[in-house]
Amino acid sequence: MSTLNRLVLWNIDHTLVDVGRITRDAYAEAFQRTVGRPLLRLAPTPGRTESEIIFETLAFNDVVTTDDHLHAFMAALAEAFATRRADLRAHGRVLAGAREAVEALSHVPGVVQSVLTGSVRPNAVLKVTELGLAPHLDLDSGGYENGVYSKAALLELARTRAGERHGTGYPESATVYIADSPRDVQAARIAGSPMIAVATGSATEAELRSAGAGRVLATLADTHAVVSAVAELTRL
């Protein structure tokens, strides 16, 4: 790969890691604390921001929502995750090839890696830290759910943060988003950045191609394929 300034943004859940059990438990606790009764149904999570999941979950459970619900639920969710560090290590897992792909890209001159996620920052940082992926990720450059911006807007925000932190520009064409859902593909397309879609979530390879992903991989297991895709999609 030639030396260019490139920004690689990773989605976390179902792209790098699987922490589904911990996520469900944390949402159940946050719902109980916020609403005062048990959670019966959790909204679908792939490609969504935390606020989207929260509002739909509240609706599914017949809760009349107000703006106060979002702030309270997010705070409770962050606390619920924080108490589950040991569970993340015991029951969470890094998906096949993810660790190797992140490490390989960390050795490519000019590449900065961070995250673009629908999770609030404390939860996102906890996931990648407890599962050993944080050392190669510039987490201060990431895009995180804040209750305001869409994922496409968060991608733009991450580009700006990375540019300010590293003293260089990361145009749309030099920023690659790696994720696993059609919603993530749509976010990358709106933001004008190339996309590597990985069929490690609920979407099939065909669904990811149909959504418009620039490259589709079955998994991250082929490290060379991941690094090559980043190079090809950002060849200026």
Automatic annotation (TrEMBL):
GO biological process per UniProt: DNA repair
Signal peptide (UniProt feature, chain positions): none
Q: Which PANTHER family match?
A: PHOSPHOGLYCOLATE PHOSPHATASE (PTHR43434:SF1)
The record's Pfam families line, in alphabetical order, gives: HAD
Q: Which UniProt keywords apply?
A: Hydrolase
> Which InterPro entries does the entry link to?
HAD-like_hydrolase_sf, HAD-like_sf, HAD_sf, PGP-like_dom2
The organism's place on the tree of life at top rank: Bacteria
For this chain, one GO molecular function annotation is:
phosphoglycolate phosphatase activity
Its protein name is HAD family hydrolase
